Amino acid sequence: MNPENNFASWEEAVEWLRSQPDQKQLVDDCYYDDPLSRAAERYWLSDEWRAVRDFLDNPRGKKALDVGAGRGIASYALAKEGYSVSALEPDPGKIVGAGAIRSLAKDANLPITVMEEFSEKLPFGDASFDLVFARAVLHHTEDLEQACREFFRVLKPGGRLIAIREHVLSKKEDLPIFLEQHPLHKLYGGENAFLLDEYISSIENAGFSKLEVLSPWKSPMNFAPYSLESLKQELSQRVGQKLPGFKGITRLLLNLPGLWPLLRWLLETMDHRPGRLYSFIAVRHS
């Protein structure tokens, strides 16, 4: 079977993907494996989530909105940190949608409420949340600026927006290249990417301040499922493939104190991959 464009829903596409033995690593990396409670626990213990945790502000007793919650792995992590979580997910699916989140919340006995709505028109009152969390959500929105305005509206003064793993283009003409290369887009579609300036302007125009932009090589939020250690190992292997004999030397150099920040700067200067990942943290002050 050729999977390209053959699925009527993302639920069907993921179900097919999970049935393919040669796609197991991709399934695990996307946290599509079962049981869902185990996948969610693995996400909570991941380097990606540990990096997110650095930006959480005293979660105990506070309210978080998980936008585009998928199958609920971030909702689970937020609830484990101490938030009371509202999970917004328009897809009702039992594998990757609202149905999955409801089952996860029940099985884990965590304070997660699920609503089947879209991010451009949030079904919540003004100043309802201390945190809006969005994992790989902004690049899926039909109206990026409207979504950011809604995030701002439902946050309390002092509340924080954390939007991670957003696909970025250097130029609009790169979008078809990115979509062609994306391993999941061909199954059902739905992927997208924006220019970096479009993300920044949409967040700032919504009223947010103290915007922090995390570039692709700066945080495990972006280069997960790699950890920093496994990322260095992968870079060493790639150098060794192109320059036999330099793998060991590269590995030693990458572990020298102070060299990684310099190499990271160099990689970011040279990195123009269509769809590379950025993350954004911003605050509502008024």
How much helicity do the residues have? 40-55%
- Overall mean pLDDT stands at 94
Oligomer: single chain
Shape: globular
Beta content comes to 15-25%
What fold name goes in the CATH topology slot of the largest domain?
A: Rossmann fold
Number of strands: 8
Number of helices: 14
What's the CATH class label of the largest domain? Alpha Beta
Low-confidence regions = none
Question: Which second-level CATH architecture of the largest domain applies?
Answer: 3-Layer(aba) Sandwich
Quick structural gist:
The protein has 286 residues and is α/β, with parallel strands linked by helices.
Structural summary, described in words:
With 286 residues, the chain is of the alpha/beta class. It folds into two domains: 10-216 and 272-283, Rossmann fold, CATH 3.40.50.150; 223-270, no CATH class. Helices cover 43% and strands 18% of the residues. Helix 7 (144-154) links the parallel strand 4 (129-135) and strand 5 (155-169). Helix 7 packs parallel to helix 10 (196-205) and helix 12 runs antiparallel to helix 13 (247-254). The longest helix has 15 residues, at 228-242. The radius of gyration is 19 Å and the shape is globular. It starts with 9 loop residues before the first helix and ends with a strand.
Q: Descriptors for this entry?
A:
single chain, alpha/beta, 8-stranded mixed beta sheet, 14 helices, 18% strand, globular
